From TrEMBL:
GO molecular function: glycosyltransferase activity
Record flagged with keyword Signal: no
Protein name, per record: Glycosyltransferase
Family: Belongs to the glycosyltransferase 2 family.
Protein's organism: Psychroserpens ponticola
UniProt cross-references to InterPro entries, sorted A to Z: Glyco_trans_2-like, Nucleotide-diphossugar_trans
Domain (Glycosyltransferase 2-like) ranges: 45-188
Class in the EC hierarchy, top level: transferase
SUPFAM superfamilies xrefs: Nucleotide-diphospho-sugar transferases
Superkingdom of the organism of origin: Bacteria
Cleavable signal peptide: none
């Protein structure tokens, strides 16, 4: 009985923590006003790193090259591909005079390290303003460059954008992947809106070239195979130099993994970087995840034994109500309106999946980026 009482009071605290995160922290994104700053006619270098992406480049590069923007170049990095990636890049270069190819050969010291290839691409960029996306990504409008770069200012040298995943009808795995992407975006965009930026996604990110070299680029974490986006931003971003862009015209979309196995391999690489975040960011992220996990464990346990079940049910309803309201409002801004209704089911599966990834990474190290 004493154990159940302790569990009950812990559950109350856990619900309070969850309401705090969803109702206050994540609410900063829903309260963020989507503004369109005055367009700036700055010269931009769009940087795309590709490793064995021949087919995706054929589909997505035309959408980059036809952007409604007056002055931009495209830096295409072939990261030691073994397919026809280089050939595809050269074919596009023949048709467009604003394409520059950086052909990266394998170097033993940096084998399998995307950061090495990106560094060479950044060095090759002519312009100071850099905009990043991936080879399997496409901008969702012809105004992508214009929208993202319009948020640069004298103070704001880093712009965080949203990179969605394509919807695939009838696929639960697709919904789960998109929900994880959506929830991750809510977190990093919300914290940035509160003046506590801690990560970004390379599918849609912009910063100044001088920002990169003033902080020695990726050198602090070059030994870590992943993290060219989130670890770099965790290192250099702060309230004074970072802003967010969440206009729908600024979004990109990538093709998600279509099997749980492939997604697991991808997430195993991604999740290793969180251990290298600043301690305060690790604390907040761990607190949120642990409170999610405890919410489900304690809610199910207390309901099974019917301990103070009326209060428990009331707290569960409160937590899900606050969660749904804020996910719904965020989904309208990020154009993911089909996800909030499924959030309880998707959240449960995601928590179990993340716990599995954590255990698996403790047993063995994940492989390189591709």
């Amino acid at each position: 009985m004493v154990i159940l009482e302790i569990a009950f009071y812990i559950f109350i605290a856990v619900v309070g923590i969850q309401v705090f995160f969803y109702g206050i922290i994540f609410n900063s994104l829903t309260r963020h006003k989507v503004i369109k700053p005055k367009q700036k006619n700055i010269s931009v270098s769009v940087i795309i790193c590709a490793k064995n992406e021949a087919e995706n480049l054929k589909k997505n590069l035309p959408l980059i090259m036809t952007q409604d923007y007056s002055d931009f170049e495209v830096i295409l990095i072939n990261d030691d591909s073994t397919d026809d990636t280089l050939k595809v890049l050269e074919e596009f270069q023949e048709k467009h005079n604003n394409i520059k190819i950086v052909n990266v050969k394998s170097v033993e010291k940096f084998w399998g390290n995307k950061k090495y290839a990106l560094t060479l691409g950044i060095k090759a960029a002519t312009h100071n303003f850099l905009l990043f996306t991936d080879a399997d990504c496409k901008p969702l409008s012809t105004y992508w460059i214009k929208e993202m770069t319009s948020h640069f200012s004298n103070d704001k040298t880093i712009v965080l954008g949203y990179g969605a995943h394509k919807k695939i009808k009838g696929s639960f795995i697709n919904k789960l992947i998109r929900y994880e992407t959506f929830l991750t975006a809510i977190q990093y965009l919300s914290y940035a809106a509160l003046g506590q930026p801690y990560m970004a996604v390379g599918r849609n990110l912009a910063y100044r070239k001088e920002q990169f070299f003033e902080t020695n680029g990726f050198m602090q974490h070059m030994h870590i195979k992943s993290g060219d986006d989130d670890l770099f931003i965790n290192q250099v971003a702060k309230a004074s130099n970072t802003t967010i862009c969440i206009t729908k015209e600024s979004f990109t979309e990538s093709i998600p993994k279509q099997s749980l196995k492939d997604w697991t391999i991808q997430k195993r690489r991604h999740i290793t970087t969180a251990n290298h975040y600043k301690l305060k960011h690790q604390f907040f992220l761990a607190t949120f995840y642990c409170s999610q996990l405890l919410f489900w464990i304690l809610a199910i346990t207390l309901l099974i034994v019917m301990f103070n079940w009326k209060i428990v049910v009331g707290l569960i309803i409160l937590r899900f109500l606050v969660q749904f309201i804020n996910l719904f409002l965020a989904s309208k801004k990020l154009n993911e309106k089909d996800l909030p209704l499924l959030s309880p089911l998707l959240e449960l599966f995601l928590i179990v999946f993340q716990f599995f990834i954590f255990i698996k990474n403790m047993i063995s190290k994940p492989k390189y980026w591709k």
